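Field reference: sequence -> structure
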Amino acid sequence: MKKANTQPIIIGLTGGIGSGKSTVAEVFDVLKIPVFNSDIEAKQLYSHPKIKQQIIKLFGNVYNQQNQLDKKALANIVFNNDEKLKQLNNIIHPAVKTLFEAWVNKNNQTPILIKEAAILIESGAAKQVDKIIVVTAPEKERIKRVMQRDNISEKEVIARMLKQLPEEKLITHADFIIKNDNQHLVIPQILDIVKKLNNTLIT
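Structure field:
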């Protein structure tokens, strides 16, 4: 484990779609622990001219009249075609990796840094972190949350879930687990993890 006065401890924060990892990330942010949101950074990349050009070349014009990505149109293409999803990831993931490395360098005086990523394990981004937090939640609850959040059908949510590692496999990579199941309080779990991480910094 990295010690104080060296490079930060980098914590990967992940969880299946609808698990509530973004809510957990917001708590870390409130605690003044910097969070790199891979999903938000990836979405912003879609407006980058070079990446936009690659997207249109591979998937057709999935941008609306306001020059914004039509997320549903792109999702309908990639979530029904493994090869297309792989092609998309090959465009986005290296660019996010570069952004993350620059962000770490910018925040290298901070003891703990959080990298939030939906597919931290699947994308290989776990190689960039020292420890992994997995946020878990019951499948039915996750489906309900995503249906409400994205205004999509249960079938569409399940299709997206199938593109991610099952929760039981994610857990095998976890150093810490946060249960976001409406039965356990989330904030005390986060504070306990922060306490443990701080203890490793001073030992």
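Note: Residues 1-5 have pLDDT under 50 and may be disordered.
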